[in-house]
């Protein structure tokens, strides 16, 4: 069981490295392909937007596919698209290959998360999701620095690294990941796939929309600062690459710790408490960042606290959606992934506007407001379990069951 989860995590490690490493090689891409750095930066935005828009569509179209075929197809498509990225001779072609890579990632990650929840009993789903999402956090701590270092002379080498990671995950899962639960819905005909309207029915559930809104707001708040962290901590680092690298390293290690702790916290305390705590703590940290960012100890404290809380929430969010309607877990988790990447894409624009309006020091206050809004959304869209009402002499006992969040 542990081996299966680690193989799934290897795939998310490849996806996470691909989605985040571009920021470290934009300068090389701009010089090689003759475009400005802001134009090269659109590669990150296009990947995130394509992922966000394609995830629920692909989950619906492939809903009747066996899970193993889904995983292998997604990884094969993702790996091939990154090989095309490494070979792209012009910027427009590179941009197109990023859309293709996002399609493979959008199909793989939600499926891997859904498979993880089906491989373990309900009381261990938080830890299973943490293991698979751990691939993303390890990518932050290891894959991105490694990819940036490898591509320091030629950005195409970084893309080939992603190809190798994707191929390794594909080979491992093809050989060792067998006999997976089908994950097919229990309703409808056994031979006729449900229609698009039936597959999208969960989107009419206010709980699903509330969960998706929470994911979007939280990652919008987080990335509005993360993308511009060099600006926020510039007084502490003095613009020195070594000091900034230390801050980023601490954030990466803290992300891994947050994912690991988040899985256990969800299983022990429940989704609602983790989400409330994990969104409130970053809000306070964003308020404090204008002062924390003035010194290295303060910057490192921020780099430790926020990723731990943030990645704990990242574990709780798909767990919450999967528990709403388990037969439709792949679609629901794809909605969560879509909201996450749309929040990442919007974070760049929101952070840029905040810097322009509030200045280099105070722009994190916008993220504090967004994090508080995410906390308020959790409060408004989740409830704590209620005890059964006691029987009365005039009525039969009534059992009240509230679905878990």
Summarize the structure.
The protein is an all-alpha fold and 405 residues long. It contains 16 helices and no strands.
Summarize the helices and strands and which ones pair or pack.
Elements: H1 2-21, H2 26-33, H3 37-61, H4 67-87, H5 91-118, H6 125-150, H7 155-176, H8 196-199, H9 206-226, H10 229-232, H11 234-237, H12 241-269, H13 271-292, H14 296-324, H15 329-362, H16 364-381
Helix pairs in contact: 1-5, 1-6, 1-7, 2-3, 3-5, 3-15, 4-5, 4-7, 5-6, 5-15, 6-7, 6-12, 6-14, 9-14, 9-15, 9-16, 12-13, 12-14, 13-14, 13-16, 14-15, 15-16
Structure, described:
The protein has 405 residues and is mainly α. Helix content is 78%, strand content 0%. The protein has 16 helices and no strands. The longest helix is centred in the last third of the chain and has 34 residues, at 329-362. It starts with a helix and ends in a 24-residue tail after the last helix.
Taking the sheet with the most strands, its summary is: none
Number of helical elements: 16
What's the alpha carbon Rg, rounded to whole Å?
21 Å
The low-confidence parts are 183-195, 385-405
Could you say which overall geometry the principal axes of the C-alpha atoms support?
Answer: globular
DSSP strand tally = 0
Structural class comes to mainly alpha
Span between N and C termini? 25 Å
Specify the helix fraction band.
over 70%
Strand content: under 5%
Mean pLDDT: 81
**SSE series:** HHHHHHHHHHHHHHHH
Defining key terms:
mainly alpha; 405 residues
């Amino acid at each position: 069981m542990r081996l299966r989860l680690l193989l799934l995590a290897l795939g998310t490690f490849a996806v996470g490295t691909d989605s985040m490493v571009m920021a470290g090689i934009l300068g090389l891409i701009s010089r090689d392909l003759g475009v400005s750095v802001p134009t090269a930066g659109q590669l990150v935005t296009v990947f995130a937007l394509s992922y966000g828009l394609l995830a629920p569509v692909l989950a619906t179209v492939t809903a009747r596919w066996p899970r193993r075929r889904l995983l292998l197809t997604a990884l094969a498509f993702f790996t091939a698209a990154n090989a095309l990225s490494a070979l792209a001779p012009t910027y427009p072609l590179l941009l197109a290959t990023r859309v293709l890579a996002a399609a493979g990632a959008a199909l793989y990650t939600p499926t891997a998360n859904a498979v993880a929840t089906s491989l373990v009993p309900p009381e261990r789903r938080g830890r299973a999701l943490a293991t698979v999402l751990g691939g993303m956090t390890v990518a932050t701590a290891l894959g991105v620095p490694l990819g940036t270092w490898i591509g320091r002379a030629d950005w195409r080498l970084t893309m080939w690294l992603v190809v190798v990671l994707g191929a390794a995950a594909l080979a491992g899962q093809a050989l060792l990941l067998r006999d997976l639960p089908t994950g097919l819905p229990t309703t409808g005909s056994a031979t006729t796939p449900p229609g698009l309207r039936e597959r999208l029915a969960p989107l009419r559930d206010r709980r699903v929309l509330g969960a998706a809104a929470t994911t979007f707001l939280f990652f919008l708040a987080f990335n509005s600062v993360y993308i511009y962290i060099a600006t926020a901590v510039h007084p502490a680092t003095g613009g020195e690459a070594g000091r900034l690298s230390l801050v980023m390293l601490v954030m990466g290690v803290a992300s891994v710790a947050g994912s690991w702790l988040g899985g256990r916290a969800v299983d022990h305390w429940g989704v609602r408490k983790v989400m409330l705590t994990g969104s409130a703590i970053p809000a306070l940290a964003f308020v404090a960042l204008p002062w924390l960012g003035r010194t290295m100890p303060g910057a490192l404290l921020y780099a430790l606290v926020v990723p731990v809380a943030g990645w704990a929430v990242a574990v709780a969010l798909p767990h919450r959606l999967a528990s709403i309607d388990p037969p439709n877990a792949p679609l629901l988790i794809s909605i969560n992934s879509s909201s996450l990447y749309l929040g990442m894409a919007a974070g760049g624009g929101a952070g840029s506007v905040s810097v322009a309006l509030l200045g280099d020091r105070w722009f994190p206050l916008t993220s504090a407001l967004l994090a508080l809004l995410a906390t308020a959304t959790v409060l408004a869209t989740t409830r704590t379990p209620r005890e059964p009402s006691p029987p009365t002499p005039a009525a039969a006992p009534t059992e009240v069951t509230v679905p878990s969040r």
